[in-house]
From TrEMBL:
One of its GO terms (molecular function) is ATP binding. This is protein-serine/threonine phosphatase. It comes from Streptomyces lasalocidi (Streptomyces lasaliensis). Residues 237-289 form the PAC domain. SMART domains: PAC (SM00086), PP2C_SIG (SM00331). The keyword Phosphoprotein applies.
Length: 814
């Protein structure tokens, strides 16, 4: 390295030199090597750093330690031939640095394995005399500038390649040593380890599962994060766990391990030691904390519940100044909770340099944190440790990072920071490690629960009507109230369906259960009922069709339903029930009645079910109340008592403010089940339309007969003859089209209200008339729909039972 005075060095280079000098421990220990490599991530802005050492037996340069982003992201290998053309081999042979940019790397053999091509690579020989080399990768667009190169050379000078132990070299295991083959799960252990687990050599079958089966179940998540670690990950592991004893409390053991890469034809191995840690513990205090945390997490249903449990279990007992819990989603950290929640309590960088107010950043934005997640064990940095600012300001007096393992991957991370220098006792690391496994499992479970709840809630919101339609001669309001017992959303639904001729259908229903399946089936049933009603079927046929559809869906769920079709002109209604509570009517004088409507079975139960219709008479001011059983039935009272209570509350309400009535009815509702409520106040139509209909005969002069019927009807209604011509022309064209292009019955219906005439022609063909895009002068047909469109204010088609209806509306002068 070129010598230069301190005055000529950059500030970062000086800080790197100080940080490297303060790293203690055995110079050849893997822990020290890893901490040295982490300085390359901090000061040289590298995203990956690794040490390769020569293997004389196989003539290779073999990876022994790494830090940062997994090497596979850059196509780097576990080993390189020493006489090859790789950057590591060139730096090893020439004993000089090799600096490569994206253009240089494009020609490398490993370029096709890189997930990111715009990277810079550096290979530097280490100075410890072993012949090893330092490999570093940067995603900085400017690569390794002069100051970054100075920092990398300082790291290369400080690296001391770790010494391979007897266990690593494959020699006979003794005492507390073990070696685990990552591909087969076979483990070799010393006699002392068998004594700690209470086994004899004859009783042990060589399977790691046999040892894991003797551990305390709460400690398994953190243990599994070690023994099922990614075989591409190199690094130290350390954690404490408990093994069950024949009598007395469990025994605490401490595992120290190191993952070694596999060679040619050899699997990766986890090697290390297991020792008795009982003498280092202070009794039952930390065990009680972990047990309390486990009990709290067992009942935590949401991610927020998990976060609050972690804050309560760790921040106060550890006297920490701040704690953050973040989920790992698609290589990004998404913060779930910050305690304290005030923005000023957290680093300014968290608010100014990342794309949202709180951290929602790639893991590689903080290489030290990425390294901790990669290694999968709790990391503790005391006061004064050189870290990137985003982490250093979280815990200037000490920082603990807990990777949260779950299901074979990392669910997230927990950051705990202190402002004043904090003395990390031996028990704290164990407490943090044991807590991490519990939290990771709970976080993943809660995240899945939240995702399902959000999905079901979204389905519920999307499948229910966003707003109710305005009705001629009536007002309708609806409310939906989810249950508080459990977070799954049920299948309660309601609907208000406007129908032709001032008819309206009121629907309320409930699908069995609380799940995504129930919400999905609810949407299917609501859509089906709306479609059958729009086809013009009577209420009993609509419900029968829905029953048949539910049976054909081959689901294990059933549904209840109440369907009320109201004629706004006549003030009459027909009610059909399918296993659902009956409507409650409030009359204008304040009296109430529970409609004695005969009911059929729930939908989806019987193939040949009958659904009888019951007539209802409405007066002006009558309120119809439809509800699901969540409002009228509880574990303490039956449905009859609930209906009586609903009727009483309706009787004392003021129906002039229907929304307030609905809110009052739900105000005292039990929350053990979902509740849907639909209210409609029938006010009557101020002006009733005039209606006439006629069946068109299929005779040569049918169009003339239709025009004559229309003229006579309009004259009877008081329409002046001089304004009839547009209506007569439209009737002639629509009737002619139906007779020429369809078979079967044709019907003409006329409706007049407030000088607005509706002409509707119904036929037996489902084909919708098509408006021609262009017509030549010689064409003899195709102009009928164009004439209707020109004369009418609006026109359209709707499907009806057995065919379609083509309609249009015209404004006639008064």
């Amino acid at each position: 390295m070129v010598s230069q005075g301190a005055a000529g060095r950059g500030a970062r280079t000086v800080r790197a030199e100080v940080a490297l000098k303060t790293i203690g421990t055995d110079p050849r220990s893997p822990e020290r090597t890893r901490r040295v490599l982490e300085q390359a991530l901090v000061f040289a802005r590298a995203s990956f750093a690794a040490v390769y050492t020569p293997d004389d037996r196989e003539r290779l340069l073999r990876l022994v330690e790494s830090a940062g982003v997994p090497r596979t992201a850059y196509g780097l290998r576990e080993s390189y031939p020493r006489d090859g053309h790789s950057p590591a081999a060139e730096a090893y042979r020439a004993r000089r640095p090799v600096w490569l940019g994206p253009e240089d790397l494009a020609d490398e053999a490993d370029a096709r394995r890189m997930t990111s091509r715009d990277v810079h690579l550096a290979a530097l020989p280490v100075a410890d005399g072993t012949g090893g080399c330092l490999l570093a990768v940067s995603e900085n667009p400017d690569g390794f500038g002069p100051e970054e190169r100075d920092c990398l050379e300082l790291v290369a000078e400080a690296v001391v390649c770790p010494v391979r132990t007897a266990v690593e070299q494959g020699e006979e295991l003794r005492g507390t040593a073990f070696a685990l083959a990552m591909d087969t799960g076979r483990v070799e252990v010393g006699d002392a380890i068998l004594d700690l687990f209470g086994l004899t050599r004859e009783e042990f079958d060589g399977r790691v599962e046999s040892l894991l089966g003797l551990t305390v179940p709460e400690d398994l998540p953190s243990l599994m994060s070690v023994v099922e670690a990614d075989h591409m990950t190199i690094g130290e592991r350390e954690l404490e766990f408990r093994v069950l004893q024949p009598t007395g409390p469990p025994r605490w053991l401490r595992l120290r391990g190191r993952l070694l890469p596999g060679g040619e034809g050899h699997p990766a191995r986890l090697v290390g030691t297991v020792a008795d840690a009982s003498s280092l513990r202070s009794g039952i205090t930390d065990v009680a904390r972990v047990q309390r945390l486990a009990a709290t997490l067992a009942t935590a249903g949401t991610v927020r519940d998990v976060s609050q449990a972690v804050v309560a279990a760790l921040r106060v007992p550890l006297r920490a100044d701040r704690i953050a819990l973040a989920e790992l989603e698609n290589e990004r950290l998404v913060v779930t909770v910050l305690d304290p929640p005030e923005a000023e309590a957290w680093p300014e960088l968290w608010q100014t340099e990342w794309r949202t107010e709180w951290p929602d950043a790639p893991v590689r934005a903080m290489p030290t944190l990425a390294a901790a997640l990669r290694e999968g064990r709790a990391q503790i940095w005391p006061a004064g440790t050189a870290l990137e600012p985003a982490l250093a300001e979280v815990g200037p007096g000490g920082l603990a990072v807990l990777p949260l393992p779950a299901g074979g991957r990392m669910a997230g991370a927990c950051l705990i920071g202190w402002d004043t220098p904090h003395d990390f006792g031996p028990d704290e690391r164990t407490l943090l490690t044991a807590s991490a496994g519990l939290v990771g499992q709970a976080l993943m479970r809660a995240h899945a629960f939240d995702a399902e709840h959000e999905l079901v809630g979204m389905l519920q919101r999307q499948l229910l009507p966003r707003r109710l339609p305005q009705l001629p001669g009536a007002v309708a309001v609806a409310r939906y109230l989810p249950a508080t017992a459990g977070l799954e959303v049920g299948g309660d639904w309601y609907d208000v369906i406007p129908l032709p001729d001032n008819q309206v259908a009121l629907v309320i229903g409930d699908v069995q259960g609380h799940s995504t399946a129930a919400a999905t089936l609810m949407g299917q049933m609501r859509t089906a009922l709306r479609a059958y009603a729009a086809e013009g079927h009577p209420p009993d046929v609509v419900v029968s069709h829905a029953n048949r559809l539910l049976l054909e869906l081959e689901t294990d769920l059933f549904a209840t339903c109440a369907y009320v079709q109201v004629d706004m002109e006549a003030g009459t209604a027909w009610c059909v029930r399918a296993g659902h509570p009956p409507p409650v009517l409030r009359h204008p004088d304040g009296s109430t009645e529970i409609a004695e409507a005969e009911g059929g079975p729930p939908l989806g139960v019987l193939t040949q079910a009958e659904f009888p219709m019951t007539p209802l008479r409405l007066q002006r001011g009558t309120v119809i109340a439809l509800t699901t059983d969540g409002l009228v039935e509880t574990a303490q009272s039956d449905i009859d008592t609930g209906l009586d209570r609903l009727a009483h509350e309706l009787s004392v309400s003021d129906p002039s403010h229907l929304g307030l009535v609905a809110d009052a009815l739900l105000g005292n509702a039990p929350r053990s089940d979902d509740v849907a409520l639909l209210l409609m106040r029938y006010d009557g139509m101020a002006v009733r339309p005039l209606r006439e209909g006629w069946t068109v005969w299929r005779v040569p002069e049918a169009a003339r007969h239709a025009r004559r019927f229309t003229r006579r009807t309009l004259l009877t209604w008081g329409v002046r003859p001089d304004v009839m011509d547009p209506a007569l022309l439209v009737v002639s064209e629509l009737v002619t089209n139906a007779l020429v292009h369809t078979d079967g019955r044709v019907r003409l219906d006329l409706t007049l209200i407030n000088h607005r005439l509706r002409v509707a022609v119904t036929d037996s063909s489902p084909r919708t008339p098509v408006k021609p895009t262009s017509l030549g002068w010689e064409a003899t047909g195709g102009r009928g729909i164009l004439l209707v469109e020109a004369m009418a204010e609006v026109w359209g088609t709707v499907p009806v039972s057995g065919g379609k209806q083509v309609w249009c509306e015209l404004q006639l002068a008064g």
